[in-house]
Amino acid sequence: MTAIPGRPATRRRPLTLPQAASDGGAAEAARSNLQRAEAEYKSQLDALKAAAGQANADALSAAAAAASTSGRLPADGAAAGPDAGLRARLEAAVQAMQAGLVERDTEVRLLLLAALSGEHILYIGPPGTAKSELGRRLSRLCKGTYFERLLTRFSVPEELFGPLSMRALEEDKYWRQTTGYLPDATVAFVDEIFKANSAILNTLLTLLNERLFDNGATRVPVPLLCLVGASNELPESEELDALYDRFLLRRQVSQVSQAGLLEMLSNGGGRKQALALRSPGTALESSDEDTTFFLTDDDFQNTRERALDAVEVPPSVLQLIADLRSYLQDKCEPPVYVSDRRLVKAVALMQVAAYTSGRGRLAEYDCLLLRHVLWQRPDEAERIYDWLLSNLASNDGMAQMQYLLNGMFGRACKAIGNPAALDSLAGEVGDLRRALTDKLSGIYATMNEGFPAVLGNLWLGQDEAQAVASALLPKLEKTRKEVGDLLFEVATLEVALQSNASALDLAQLLPQRWHAFLR
């Protein structure tokens, strides 16, 4: 028989009841023997229960021990994560971009993540909510050329891409002077971007998606790192759908709250902090050359590729993403369309987020970023958020494990008297116990370390991360109890099999499973 580690397998002597006496003179002796047999059986059953309790305690201890070491980085640093310098620069960049701004924590982090991922971001909201200021601050951080333009329905391509060269026209060449315009920019901010007309759209789409600009007969690469689009409204025509889809990250920007307004109006000292990031074009003084405030070209050009190579995407995360798209497209009314391209880019974005947070493996909690990626209308972001919270702390796989345990219990009842079958079954029950122990270990690690994948995520705002952790904690506690209860039943069945328990023993030890077996 397979034994629980540290405890030898035991064979319990089968209980034999005395034959009933046929004459009245032996009735008292028979009754006495029966009482002794019942006492012996009760003692043996109590021993089984004690052994099962000890086995469960051992499993819980193993889960707690595994949780204390899980998720830790190697002592010499995060081999799969970035160097400590990049993490420090990113944290400094976030703080610098937030300086003097109120309630723009999430907007700042998403913008920086978009730039590191080589993606574009769209802010939707009323004027005067610091949308253009964020773009200026990003260009200051990366020391790049900045371009800004407000579009109208009457805007012409020259406003974005530069005027035609008169000298080139004299030589029968169609060539634009792009210096100082969008094809020359590292960071760009285009307000009212959905006012773009068909004369602008095709060129803009190629520039955003492929980082190429058709200048005359020549297709030239552009240095564009990130384009920040802004609009007061959503696109109204189908011809703008392709442009809308180019913005992987989308964020609705609202006015500051009442409490935030008081802070903003009273924060006179914040002006000094805001001056740390002046408008582009201002000459740097020698004292300003603090490289901790700036990200290098290597950071922006290579972080994404390094993340794609270093960060593993587990099947559980992929399944969660697939389930989310199915929910949005099949169960929401109206359906929320999510393109294949957007999903592929979303996974790459999450890999960058995990890599820059010092992890070599995606966690399901990284999917919280999808609330800023998958919506078509702003109100859908809350649906995505609620669905993710509901599924991140769900008892995933518990129904299957319950089904497995019911099947194993039924097989145990039928295999009594067949040592080979019981030995094989004990091995399967042990595998289930180990799977539950691993699951419980993961729950312990998350709860004991305070949701490190949430609170330690560089790309979730502090208020957002705290809200997520508070929402998930009671759900995770419920899942922990369900896993612990099932683990106790599995440990009990394993001990019973190792002790050569009878059908009566199984019925006494696991009455609910026995009732399910009889049905």
UniProtKB/TrEMBL annotation:
GO molecular function: ATP binding
Biased composition regions of type Low complexity, renumbered to the chain: 15-30
SUPFAM superfamilies referenced in this protein's UniProt entry, alphabetically: P-loop containing nucleoside triphosphate hydrolases
A Pfam family it matches: bpMoxR
Stretches the record annotates as Disordered: 1-35
ATPase RavA-like AAA lid domain ranges (all copies): 316-388
InterPro entries named among the record's database cross-references: ClpA/B (IPR001270), MoxR (IPR045427), P-loop_NTPase (IPR027417), RavA-like_AAA_lid (IPR041538), RavA_ATPases (IPR050513)
Residue span(s) of domain MoxR: 89-273
Protein name as it appears in the record: ATPase associated with various cellular activities AAA_5
Organism encoding this protein: Micractinium conductrix
Organism placement in taxonomy: Eukaryota, Viridiplantae, Chlorophyta, core chlorophytes, Trebouxiophyceae
